[in-house]
Task: structure prediction
Amino acid sequence: MRSLPLPLALAARLSPVVVLACAGWAMSSSPAAPEDAGTAQDGTPRQTQSENGDSSASPTAAKTYAAAPAPCGSVSAKTVTSLVPGAKTAGKEIPSTDTKIRRTCSWNALKGFDYRWLDVSFEIMDTQDAAVKSYKARTGEKSGGGAVPGLGDEAYSVVNLTTEDKQQTREGVVFARVANALVVVTYNGSDFETKKAPDTSTINTGAIKAAKEAMAALRSGTAG
Result:
């Protein structure tokens, strides 16, 4: 089966686009079991907020993660093959001005008429408060989504639909935060034969699956 060239909208994927919130969005992934809020990863008790709600004095507001893990190794080859058929499982890391602060890996492929693109990014903030502020600002800009239970300290998933020249592209984004680190996953797809996009459930489930693996990779790394 012959492959078709990508539309301009996908070739210029990194440019800002206007998206339509996908009606009927629904969480399609069974939530993982919530983490024990009273125990940290190393088995020590977590510091909780004070009774007046001020967490600024908590040790968790400090820099827990010192550097981003290697993003291209954060998602298993099996998952890459499943989400992006035809893509090289090694992925391609996007150049960054400071790899300690931000690292991103991309996988994309056109197999027959089906196109898929997956991005996984890690961003390390100086403090937890800075990460919380960034998380709230980004999720506040994305309406129509919902929380993802059991993923980091807090997580949000949203799926949007873009149509250009009658070609649909559906994109899912997951924002997840743990301590002073953010995990951002973007997953989208198109069918150039039908000009339709994959359904919301397919994109949402795929984005959340990749985000869970990326979060596990971050947590298994060395904390600063």
Summary: The chain has one domain: 61-220. The longest strand covers residues 167-178.
